[in-house]
Amino acid sequence: MEFPCSLRADQLPAFLSKRPYAVIHLDASWDNLRHAILKQIEHLAASANDDISFGYLDIDLDHNREHAKAIGLLNVPSCSYYRGEELVGTVIGMNQDIAANLAAIRAGGRPDRSNRC
User: Which domains does the chain have, with CATH numbers?
Assistant: First the structure.
């Protein structure tokens, strides 16, 4: 599975329509904390089923700022979890358990926003 798939916000609908589930890593190039999230996603992407897409949006780029505002993004690093094209939840912080959040999404639930790993 290819990761990271660097996206522009206007590409998000087409990207989300490819698979039943998606994790979009929202970050900025200046954020040194992003590496913990990247390691989790790279590990998951290497072993994931074909039902998950992993993407990346740099929120500091002009064409992505409106998307960050639209979903109420308050800080980075963050991950947005999607079921199809539906945004199920966004979790802020590097200590989130992305695998557990994906399991919750698959089971029809929501991601754990408590940020405990």
Answer: 5-106 (3.40.30.10)
